Amino acid sequence: MNPKITLQPVSLEDIQRIATWLEDDEISDSWYGIDSERQPIHIGYSPHDFKSSADTPPLRKVQNNSRRIFSVYSSEEGHIGEAQLLIEWALQDAQLYLLIGRKDLWHHHYGTAALIALLDEAFQNLQLHRVWVDVPEYNTHAITMFNHIGFVLEGHLRATHRKNDAWYDSSAMGLLQDEYARRRAIVVEP
């Protein structure tokens, strides 16, 4: 049975936790690795910049109608990650980003439950037509999860993710609204 997950507005405390999580090499490698200055890469904004900031609300400069950023909360575990939709309204599609920052919760269906919550947001609330992800080849657990939900391999991207000073290929995987509607009942356990 999947854990109970909610998507909530991002708080400064959430961003500070994300910054701390990304200092762990295993977590940052599963996300987007580190840059040339050895800082963890984060999509959309830099949690490190907010680590001691009094900016309120913290994401007002980066969150907008085309970038929806959520904190992932578990009813049992509290804040466990972050989810984003980078929306292209003209195409009615979005690139999806998902990070479970609590390693102790990896491989316990929290990622799947968070993915379902984000897909519900994308397809049911925002009425998007398509969602896609860019998954590095070394993140086999994520590839398995996206396959399980019904994402389809749409392409192979060359040298898109850096890890340990080497470049790795990735898979572009997509899911259409009608495909998700058919698959949702199968992947969500009652």
Describe the structure.
The chain is α+β, with helices and mostly antiparallel strands. The protein has one domain (5-187): Gcn5-related N-acetyltransferase (GNAT) (Aminopeptidase), CATH 3.40.630.30. 31% of the residues lie in helices and 32% in strands. A 7-stranded mixed sheet has the order 1-2-3-4-5-7-6. The longest helix has 16 residues, at 110-125.
Characteristic key phrases:
190 residues; alpha+beta; Aminopeptidase; 7-stranded mixed beta sheet
Rg over CA atoms: 16 Å
Helix/strand structural class: alpha+beta
- The CATH topology annotation reads as Aminopeptidase
CATH homologous group name? Gcn5-related N-acetyltransferase (GNAT)
Q: Which band does the percent of strand residues land in?
A: 25-35%
Average residue pLDDT: 90
- Report the sheet with the most strands, covering strand number, pairing sense and barrel closure: 7 strands, mixed
CATH class, named Alpha Beta
Task: Compile the SSE list and pairings.
Elements lengths: L4 E4 L3 H11 L2 H7 L15 H4 L16 E8 L3 E11 L4 E8 L9 H16 L4 E7 L3 H10 L2 E12 L2 E11 H11 L3
Parallel strand pairs: 4-5
Antiparallel strand pairs: 1-2, 2-3, 3-4, 5-7, 6-7
Outline of this structure?
By secondary structure, this protein is an alpha+beta fold. It contains 6 helices and 7 strands.
